Structure formats: C-alpha cells, structure tokens
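Cross-check.
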Amino acid sequence: MKKILLYTGRSAFIFLFMIIVLFMQAGDMIAGTTGKIAGKIIDAKTKEPLPSASIMIKELKTGTASNIDGRYFIINIPPGTYTLTVSMIGYETITLTGIPVSVDHTTPQDVELVPSDLQGQEIVIVAKKENIRRDVSASQVVATAEQIVSIPMVNDLNSYINLQAGVDGNDIRSGGLDQRGYMVDGLISVDNRRNEPLMLTNMSTVQELTLVKGGFNAEYGNIRSGLVNVVTKDPDFNKVHVYADLRFTPARQKHDGDPITSPNNWYNKAFMDPGVAFVGTTNGTWDEETQ
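Predicted model, tokenized:
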C-alpha cells in the first residue's frame, strides 16, 4: 500500500509539472499588447555611464533606475506617445517628449545628462523617430487610431486593412481568411462556425493596429498569410465618451443584379438573347443550369 501511494505521489508531481510547462508555453503564444523603452544614461562630457539615474514616465507615473552600466528598461507600456523624465543629483533634468511606443517593440532612448551646479534646471527635448526598427524582422504596418480615422472613406478596420499593400479582398498575400489571424488585446477572435476572423472591433475603442504581412514568429499558432493585432484603449471612468457614425445614402430605386434596361437582366434575358428568344429556353442554346 505504501508503494502505491508513493507511486501516485510521483505521478501527481510529474502531471502538475507538465501542466505548468504547458501553461508557460501557452503564455508565449499570446500576442503582445504592450511595448518597452530601453536605453543608456551617460555623462554628456565624459561619455561615462551613470548608475542610479532616475527614469520616469510622466503619463504612467512609473519608472526605474539605471544599473551600474547606465542601462535601463521599462516594460509593459501600453502603445501610445509618452514623456520621459531623466534626473540625477549633480546633473540637469532632461525631459523627452513624444516618445512612441508600439506593441512588441523596444523603443531605444539613450540620454546624455549635462553636469550642473544649480538644482532645478530642466532641459526639454523632442524625441526623434526611429528610421530603422532594429528588433523587427517581419513585414508589418503599425497605425494609431488617429492615423486610421484621418484617411478618407475609411469607416472601419476592414476598409483600412484593404488599403495596405499585399491585401486584396481581405486576403493577405493571397491567403484565405482561414489562414489569417485576428487578435484583440492578445486574444484570438474567430468565428468557429466558418473558421474566419471576426472583424467587429469598434473604431472608437482602437488604440493601435498592427498588420503583420510576413516573416512573423511561430508564437501566433496556426497562421500562414498574416496577422491583425488590435490593442484597445484603457477606459477613463472620469469622462463620458460618445461615438457616432453617420452615413447618408440618397433616395433611389434599389435593385439586385444588372440594371432593368440591360439585356442581361434576369427578366429581359429570355426575350433578348437570340439563342432562346425564338425557340424558348428549353430548346435554345442555354445549358441546364442557366435554364
């Protein structure tokens, strides 16, 4: 009896270990919803690294300190534009504005602090946009909500995606809908009845959209042609938000198919097609399906 209990205890431990490993692997497959800022703090004159410098993100009220090599990083930053403040005793405070943060991307931001004998001085610098993203190997398009709304005749995410190169009729690189992934805040959104992505995200809730058209990692699972990753905005419970989408269609007679005056119209074709007009549809040249 003791041997059986010992065997059962070992089996339970192995089973529990396997479950933990599977959960860790599953967590790696979830699409990213945050970004990262990293860089190095150095002395502007000596170019030596500055340890223990304070780095703060103004909008999030969070930050970190540089290590002994002057390097720092801040993770789990929602996509958007932020202000970074770097300060240290004996140096002027540097404030960098307009730092963009995107999903699954590390924004590099090195800072040079200028020595100062006077406390309270501050220098404001506008951050420069990256020319080349060094940590991105895939072919992708990153757009904010403001950029999407500013494009004329774009009423939803679907119409914006179809304007991008390599996308035609919702197909990315000639791959069908069942080969494309659509994720909202890191979760897959799929209609299981037809195995097609559900593009139902409201435009007013979008913070950032990432369209990956090729070269993506295997972390996204069964995706072949492309990936659409949408990150929504964090709600502000202190404000009331109203979104209205107004569309106008002029009054006209609605119909389906060819115009009523066209020879190919369903009601005119049997009388205006020479192949059946004088002998009837059964005896004419039409195939069985057309009859």
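The helical segments are 2-28, 145-149, 157-161, 269-272. The radius of gyration is 29 Å. Passed to J.P. for a second look.
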